[in-house]
Amino acid sequence: MVRPPTARSAVPGVGRLGLLEPNAAANLRELAWDNVESIPVLWALSRAPDADLALTTLMRLREELGTGWAELDSALRTDKSLRGRLFALLGASSALGDHLVADPSAWQELRRKELPSAEQLRAELLAVVEAEPERGPAAGPLVFRAGKSGPEVVPLLRKRYRDQLMLLAAQDLAATVENEPVLPYEVVGRQLADMADAALTAALAVAIARVCGDKPLEVRLAVIAMGKTGARELNYVSDVDVLFVAEPADATATRLAAELMTVGGTAFFEVDAALRPEGKAGALVRTLDSHLAYYKRWARTWEFQALLKNRPATGDLELGQAYRDALMPMVWTASERPDFVADVRAMRRRVEDLVPADMRERELKLGHGSLRDVEFAVQLLQLVHGRVDEALHVQNTTEALAVLAARGYVGRDDAANLTASYEFLRLLEHRLQLQRLKRTHTLPAGDDEEGLRWLARAAHVRPDGRLDAGGVLVAEIRRNTVRVRRLHAKLFYRPLLESVARLDSDALRLSPEAAVRQLAALGYAQPEHALGHLRALTGGVARKGRIQTLLLPTLLEWLGDTPNPDAGLLAYRRVSEALDEQTWFLRELRDEGAVAQRLMIVLGSSAYLPDLLINAPETIRLYADGPQGPLLCRTQPDEVARGILTAAARYDDAKRAVAAARSLRRHELARVASADLLGLLDVPQVCRALSSVWVAVLEASLLAVIRADEVESGEPAPADFAVIGMGRLGGMELGYGSDADVLFVCDPRPGVDETKAVKWANSVADRLQKLLGAPSTDPPLQVDAGLRPEGRNGPLVRTLTAYAAYYRQWSQPWEMQALLRAHQVAGDQELGVRFLHVVDEVRYPKGGVSADAVREIRRIKARVDAERLPRGADPATHTKLGRGGLADIEWTVQLLQLRHAHEVLGLHNTSTLQSLDVIEETGLLGADDVALLRDAWITATAARNALVLVRGKPSDQLPGPGPLLSAVAKVAGWPTDDGGEFLDNYLRVTRRAKAVVERVFGG
Length: 1003
Prior knowledge:
- By secondary structure, this protein is mainly α.
- It has 41 helices and 13 strands.
- The strands form 4 sheets. Strands 9, 10, 11, 12 and 13 form a 5-stranded mixed β-sheet that branches.
- Among the domains are: 681-843, Beta Polymerase, domain 2 (2-Layer Sandwich); 851-1000, Four Helix Bundle (Hemerythrin (Met), subunit A) (Up-down Bundle), CATH 1.20.120.
- Residues 504-1003 are annotated as: Adenylyl transferase.
- Its EC number is 2.7.7.89, 2.7.7.42.
- This is Bifunctional glutamine synthetase adenylyltransferase/adenylyl-removing enzyme.
């Protein structure tokens, strides 16, 4: 910092004083501040947050004062405290500068050495309206009636309130200019709350005069302060949240409350009663009994959270205290409500969603690492432990943090650091609001150098030699928001870990009961089991236990945001124990934040993946980010297929070859399911990847079986053999729970007896099915040949000639329809293509499908709808057979193929989605109809896949409202955790698609 010159040196230039306005030098000459005697004044001016603004406002003030300027000028030269207050005020707040210019004699207020007490504040405002205490038997404490109540009282009250605000702001800011004592944040918040109480009292006095006139006050009205006012940690510019309690709650009481809000809103600040029962739709005034009835029966968790900060502010304080005494016991039992955790989290998410994504880094109140993060965390811990610990029955955030630390519910260092960051962010909030007396919590943009410089100076932030004040401020903001984010996790979880592993010999330890309460509040349905998992994870080998202890606070926070934290923590314990000898595992979690976070999301969301990850742990390494994004998306299906074929080809023994193919399939399933659950793949990509790995396993296993047979018999295979994919496999649209529908076809090689060839082929097909379907911990590999001619009563394998003869003579409409999805997937490629040419005549009949066949297909569909739906299933939410579900969409597309594929070659296609594209391009259906069918197919497929990922087993039925539905919604990619919204969307999409199906398929 540049040192001020001595009396012997030259007067500093305006540039050195931070004055950039062109007329600054002229203004200083006009004030006679351009001489050596004025140096103390000049250097004080230079330290104002905005010296140009301060000087410009001083010139305006001089003009308004006229001859009175001499007194102020003299005082500024001799009174260091006044100098610091006035220059800091004028350089920080254009709004309060305007207020001072409008009433220039008010500068005398800044000479007051002490801030007025709550009683003095109230007396000053009541004196403005000539209020006297209310008399009579109904009068309660602090109930006054104004002598003045006409329109003239509003500007008078506003002026006096602004005077009080100006004095506080000046004392708060003075340390930026002169070495005045810094006003603690708690003092500022309490003073502002006392001012709000005084303002509400004056507004009530005017309201009584206006409503009652000369008549006695016959109602008891208590004004309950809520939010920051109730906690006495108010901002400079804020709504003042209130509730009204009256006996009786009649028209007079309602008029009094409404008039108070009107007077308060025009004279002081917005008076907001939206936190009352039923919000803005509820009665403005209620009796105490009515309040109690509402909170006992209807109140939601967030309303009890809001009541943490209730405080009688004015009016009938005895009634207000009776309200508090009656309501607080309900507040301290709110954590026992079954929906407590979900409600608190939902409220926090709703608050975060109010902030646009591009503004979150600049948002002090609601962004990540913001003030609200601290307040929500503290309130949650108070609600959890306050039921059994009355020491936590405090309202102020920093006081509550201190008590939580003193009682061992949070770490002492964590509480101290969090308090420091909270107070720093509140200081910035105060400075931003003072600038124009506007309610704001938004930091200047990163490229707003002047705005950042002003805020830095207003917040006592100075250059550090490397960075200017704005740069230092940006660094401090980043440091504090990061610290809040980090401590937000530690605040909850470090004490839990202290309870199972001694981290700090001096730290207070949570009792087992307190630890269980805290875990329950964090979303664990079985907190006792969760505590056992923590003990197991932090025990064992000392070094690994220490690493787990360092990791777990953050891991547990991420787990807490998943649908099933209990299952996730158990799965993490299982994975950790399974990988106990793998040194890379904990190192990866420690060094790669993305890996750890993605792993927790996966484990807390899916019952399908933990076993896969235990058996294919290398997949976890793919959770890291590479240069082109997550490594999970780096692998292509074709690469996986080549890998499976190469690995299986190394073995002559069929079992070992199939085991190798299974192993790589396991890795690919883990990769695809992880990427799907993390939202990195869309539905068609998932289906394609799952189908590709199935095809590769079939191909590798078939080749292994044939190779093993040739080795055992010493003879070459007597026939060519091909596997034809049917259903979803043929369409390359498999889901996680899909079987592989196939047909087996063989063709005797020259000179080989057909009977011998068919017998060999049946042996190969049977062995292939048994090897693939052998019991395993992996998801099953079921090969289903039930779509073959004559169904399960027909031979497992036929020759190509036998297939051709059957389809020419005996094929049924359902077989014609099923063959639309036939596609060569494994075995002899040339034989498979010849088979497809044979069935093309059946599935793409010349002239289109006959009317009789269409009627038969419709009859079969009606029978499927009536008979195949499982007993007790809801047809509206069955993803496969329900209304507008997968079967409806696919049968409709297949009917259009049967009717038009003879003339539209693009419909020679086994994929539902690709066929829909062709249907739209050729105008067979309108674009809107196709969009509805496509949306329904993708929505139902996503839901069906999510059901398997969440439950760990195949399922087609969406669950009813509850945690399971919310989990399915989240895994299916629904943007919120609201399972009800997801279900409503599913029903809406499928209902619209069903209307198209009925019109197109039903004729």
